[in-house]
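Batch manifest line 511
LIGAND: zinc ion
JOB: complex structure
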Amino acid sequence: MAAITIYDGAESIGGNKIYVEDNQRGVFLDFGMNYARRSAFFVDFLNERAVRGIHDMLYLDIIPRINVYRQDLLTSDVEPLIKSYPKVSPEAVLLSHAHTDHNGNIGLLDHGIPVVASATSIAIMKAMRDIKSSGLGGDIAYSTLREKDKNNSNLLKTEGSKYQGRQFCYAGKCNPELSEFISDKPGSGGRNAKKLDGCGLEALGKKELPFEIKPFEVNHSIYGAMAYTLRSNNTSLAYTGDFRIGDNAKQLPDFIKEAKNSSVLIIEGTRTGRSGDMDVTETNVYDTCKATSDDVKGIIIADFSARNFERLEIFKRIAREIGRQLVITAKDAYYLYAIGCAAGTCSTDGLLVYDELKDKKACKYETETLAQDCPVEYVRNHEIKDNPDGYILCMSFYDIKQLLDIEPRGGAYIYSSSEAYSEEQEIDFEKLKNWLELFSIEPHGFTFDNGKPKFIKGFHASGHATGEELERVIDAVDPDVLIPVHTQNNGWFKEKWEQTRLVKNGETIEI
Ligand SMILES: [Zn+2]
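JOB STATUS: finished
ARTIFACT:
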């Protein structure tokens, strides 16, 4: 018997955790963080307590109540609970892409569960962990092992700095250098040092899994996004992950061709619920941002979401065309280096890295790995201050404090990212407004209307398919069963396709 259980992500944007099984053998499609659920309880400095392992997330139903998690994250009070939950034994997680709403809980899974992903996604996940541990669930490539405190077994402590790595299987092409990159922890003494325990990289084709799996590159707002088809004796299924068609339709036909042979289609529906959605492509974004940048006097700051390297390429092109140099953060340089390891190219060429005034002791990825393997050219605050017309700075709201050292007078802040969807995000814009006023920098991409940010069309393109694009894909695939996920409006599908199955979180359907 084959079955699908959607543990999470059925009725929210993100948090996908979809278990597909046949004959008691199965795989997860993504294992992401459900931010909507998490933000119902946590904010800023109110967080899950790592010393309690997975307790808080389990208690608050931020993660599903199943027996699948790392043993070293179970405190004494959680252990019997976990034993009482259904045992799920995935043989792999097939990751669609490296956004945290799709991978942000993988770090909680037993270390023996490998992750299948594109080489680019693997590189990004490893770089993310090297830059900073983003909590237990985000420790995907490797994590610090924990043990129960001898004085109180409901508390966990770390066993010195013993790291445990995870196995990856790359789907599609991969440069051999990636293998070296994923087993090397920055700061552990360079390439001759001891490699991370448990790390490994092999080709998807070499791995014996319960399904025949085919990966397909898709276009999304992060490089390395994949759709998958899965086939076994009893079932066949296609999963889109997050995708868009936009002005890059060339990748999708292969997936559609293969998906046509699948009886089940699991598809994302992010934009079906967003009213007044704007239809903008990356080409439009280039045109708008280029026109805005053309006559700017003073500094240009480009703000786009973290790890959106396609957008970075757009600003690199604009910088070249208007005779400025593109300046990125050391973090972004490290991501580009990581992606370069996966692709066998060097993607930091022609870029400058901002030499932030910071204590670099904790930045081994920068002072050791980048310095040794991918030396970058730095630019310092006073150089930008003396010649603000010479640069485009790629910085986000959280980097804005750097302006205190650069002290610009005038210029443009180009906001090239998604609208504020929450009150917290709106509050960030109020603060951004104060910063920009302080340095007389003109905002582009948003204005203020009655104290609330209002977003201007053309500066940002969504990473998700429009309703019309979804229709095209679904009609072309013509599945027997259609399961929408990653949406707040699954009724949109039900109205249009009678084969739609609305599955609730935690529900299992036979296929
Ligand atoms: Zn995504």
